[in-house]
Amino acid sequence: MDITTCNQMDEEAFVRMLGGIFEKSPWVARAVSGKRPFRSADDLFSALAAAVRGASPAGRRALINHHPRLGGSGKMTAQSVNEQKRAGLSQLEKKEAADMAALNAAYEQRFGFPFILALRGKKKQEILIDMRQRLTHTRAVEFTTAIEEIIKIARFRFDDLFDPERDHSGNRNGA
Q: Which of the residues 10, 103, 137, 150 could staple to 141 if both were Cys, CB 3.0 to 4.6 A apart?
């Protein structure tokens, strides 16, 4: 995909193309569709991120709640399945699965929403460490952190659309 083609799409095509980069939240793409044309892919992504950051607290909370539990089962988008698989979360050993389930439950009980982490380039042990560390934060800090992690996830997905030469770590192939 390139920015010229993106700028020329009708709104429905634009939303279909970008609607999935923010988990089950096509409203983000719809919010910026009328702001076209964008000068660059980076400008487009900046507008998408601004739409998320500028959403109401209820809108941001709904966005957070659309994300699946890490290492768990349940209905996930194909992108989430792939991201969790790449991080090794689809092949957890029994103790790792129990630890992750306990940390997810503790996190959700403490904060009232699922733990969100951009998984690209992370291994399962790093994820467990992040979960433990973030349990020490305040709810306000975690709410903001969850939104920023969602924006990171969306950036990886966005880059996959606009720059498919990137590898799974976010680097350009061959770099």
A: 137
Burial class of residue 136 (count of CB atoms within 10 Å of its CB; 0-12, 13-18, 19+)? exposed
pLDDT of 164 higher than 90: no
Domain covering 3-162 assigned CATH 1.10.3330.10 in the classification: yes
Cβ contact 52:150 at 8 Å: yes
Q: Give Cα 109 to chain centroid, integer Å.
A: 21
Domain residue ranges in the chain? 3-162
Instruction: Please tell me the predicted confidence (pLDDT) of residue 3.
Output: 95
End-to-end CA distance of the chain: 21
Residues labelled as active-site residues: 67
Stated pTM of the model: 0.89
- Ramachandran class of 71: left when φ > 0, alpha when ψ lies in -120 to 50, beta otherwise: left
Nearest to 119 by CA among 148, 164, 80, 90: 80
